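User: quick one - fold this with flavin-adenine dinucleotide bound?
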Amino acid sequence: MSENHYKIAVIGGGPAGYLAAIRAGQLGMSTVLIEKMKPLGGTCLNVGCIPSKALLTSSEHYYVAKNRLAKHGVIIKDDAISLDLGALMKRKTDVVTQLTKGIDFLIKKNKVTRLEGFGKLLGGNAVEVATTDGETKTVTADAIILATGSEVIELPFLPYNGKTVISSDHAIALDKVPGSLLVIGGGAIGLELGSVWSRLGAKVTVIEFLPRIAALNDADVSRELDKHLRKQGIDIHVNTKVESADITDQGVTLRTTQDGKAVDFFGDAVLVAVGRKPFTKNLGLDTAGVELTQRGRIKVDGHYKTSAPGIYAIGDVIDGPMLAHKAEEEGVALVEQLAGQAGHVNYDIIPNVIYTHPEAAGVGLTEDQLKEKGIAYKVGKFNFAANGRALANDMSEGFAKILADAKTDKVLGVHILSSQASELLGEAVSVMEFGGAAEDIARTMHSHPTMTEVLKEAAWAVSGKALHGA
Ligand code: FAD
Ligand code: NAD
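Assistant: Sure. Structure tokens for the protein plus flavin-adenine dinucleotide:
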């Protein structure tokens, strides 16, 4: 076997790819990880999940200091509160660097060979890598894993210029707070990065094509989140289709149709957040015989096998929600399967969080989905306003809602709108993974005082008897 032959070759060092490589290393398989960028971690660590959350935390501190500290008796005198955007951005970059360095360490520790360069399929079991130092190398592997992720979608009449027309890649690194920011798309990116710039002082307007923002969340959560974001000063327009745009050096005018009427919006800049598409450019898919689905994702079977023998695909580049944890699970499951183990991903239980304030978190089916499927269900709901810890923490917005099977009481969906909903959802995910019932949550002892008690109360409410219910 030549020096450049591996058991596993992974193309793409994002959550799907780097975890697949680490797991392969842990299972003792010779592995090469090919990534075109210097830092590992892909979209999630470098320009996605992590930098956006660092900015959300910093902007929240600034917003809270400006708007909410006085009632805690913290007075900032003479309105002398100001923003150092450079320091805020530096902290974000430091967080990202600390994490990407951590992956470098884990890759080495697990004896995975790292190749910095662009990988292209040559057909059969070979990958050509155009390395960043100008060389071309060929590696072969028993199994090639495509984990090349996704990239931003561009609207044809709004080409990105990084100044007035920006994508999330730009919106995590602006050097100035725009006076006004239009956001096209009321999904996770639009609402998270819209929140960041609104908190930092921009006048933000979200324009959403569908009848509601956060359209994938349970309708109650999305309705309540809409109210909170409006209260924070974000202007939201639903049922609004952006048709065309005028771009000048001063800003952008969007021409839209709103409930059949023409309405124009002007902003100093526009953030286009209308989704992401799989990244398969120059990957050599045709040469290798790897087929795509109608929507341009790499077609795989239930074991992540593509149409080409020995080539597999995982993460954003295949079907399913474009989420880091879904990508990670697929990386681990595939490599375990290749090692002869029983790797598995439960696609019915994929948690989903929008990290606004309050956070919108959900897992399992929404109420609308239960109705569509004709499943008889019971609902238990409890407000954080009636929870001691939430009140003490000044985090009393929102509610938790549990949907359970009408006959068996099995939990079918949990939806939370609250501060730290992302953390609270973990309990619901575990219960659902074990096929638990609402009564299991209700009869489990929860520490007092904690916000988790809201989940317990919502679980009691499923059978009509919340302990602290009005
Ligand atoms: P990616 O992370 O996109 O990684 C693919 C890697 O492959 C990249 O590093 C790329 O450089 C490399 N690559 C591509 N082609 C080649 C090639 N031919 N040769 C070599 N290397 C190649 N998800 C969440 O779950 N939670 C969040 O809070 C969250 N926040 C987000 C915020 C933003 C602003 C964005 C944009 C995304 C967010 N996501 C979030 C989505 C998340 O980032 C993706 O689901 C996740 O990164 C997908 O992982 P992946 O490994 O499939 O792809
Ligand atoms: P998205 O699909 O979540 O939301 C895009 C929104 O834009 C949709 O509501 C859609 O109806 C709307 N839209 C599309 N075209 C439009 C138009 N022409 N005019 C007005 N509205 C329009 O996509 P996103 O927010 O760009 O995020 C991309 C991916 O990244 C998603 O898969 C998301 O799950 C993932 N992501 C996840 C998180 C998280 O988990 N917290 C954070 C950021 C991104």
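One thing worth noting: The first helix runs from residue 15 to 26.
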